[in-house]
Design brief:
The chain contains 5 helices and 7 strands, in the order E-H-E-E-H-E-H-E-H-E-E-H. With about 160 residues, it is of the alpha+beta class. Helix 3 packs across helix 5. The chain is globular and about 50 Å long. The structure holds coenzyme A (COA). The site of coenzyme A (COA) has 22 residues, from strand 4, helix 3 and helix 4. This is GCN5-related N-acetyltransferase. Pfam families: Acetyltransf_7.
């Protein structure tokens, strides 16, 4: 399995339904536009038997780090860091849910972040989690920022230890 960049000419974006309207709409209306402006990149996992159908997707970009909302030890270590890699969205179509695709997509996204960090260094990978998905990310070692439960992070060093 591999992810490819969203291709509006090929992929059936309207068919995608993960159950969260905002995430469906982003894929349908904004993902391609944002990529063409070099603001974000959206990667999709295609259904191997119908490659126009999207099993799941994630969107990558960068985000400022709120140093004060990190545990003290990490604040000191990363006091000169300006930005973290953001996993802005991750979703699996309901038709393919609970088959391990969400986990596979998250690991794929982390590998891409790790690889990007080798050329443009950044110390943290940050996710904006929807309400029901916080424990999904916690399972994989993400921790909440101190000032909000919906925004979580994992250090690139920890990802490197697990996947590098
Ligand atoms: C969250 C989501 C990506 C999970 O995708 P999925 O393909 O069904 O998940 P997987 O089958 O890979 O599950 C992997 C593990 O995570 C767990 N898991 C799945 N969804 C979870 C959730 N919402 N909360 C906590 N754990 C979850 C599974 O039980 C599984 O654990 P196990 O290995 O111990 O059995 C998917 O349900 C989704 O797209 N939801 C709507 C959008 C959303 O909330 N996105 C995430 C935040 S932006």
């Amino acid at each position: 399995m591999i992810t490819v960049q969203l291709d509006k000419k090929k992929h059936n974006r309207k068919r995608f339904d993960c159950g969260v309207e905002a995430l469906n709409n982003y894929l349908c209306l904004l993902a391609n536009q944002q990529s063409s402006k070099d603001n974000t990149r959206t990667f999709v996992l295609e259904d191997e038997s119908h490659s126009e159908n999207i099993i799941g997707y994630y969107t990558l970009t960068m985000t400022p780090i709120d140093l004060e909302a990190l545990p003290t030890q990490l604040q000191k270590r990363h006091q000169n860091a300006k930005a973290g890699g953001l996993l802005a969205r991750l979703a699996v179509d309901k038709r393919y849910a609970k088959q391990g695709f969400g986990e596979w997509l998250l690991i794929d996204a982390l590998k891409k972040r790790l690889s990007a960090s080798e050329t443009v260094a950044f110390p943290l990978i940050i996710v904006d989690a929807k309400e029901g998905a916080i424990s999904f990310y916690e399972k994989f070692g993400f921790r909440a920022f101190l000032d909000t439960s919906n925004k979580l992070f994992i250090t690139v060093a920890d990802v490197r230890k697990s996947l590098g």
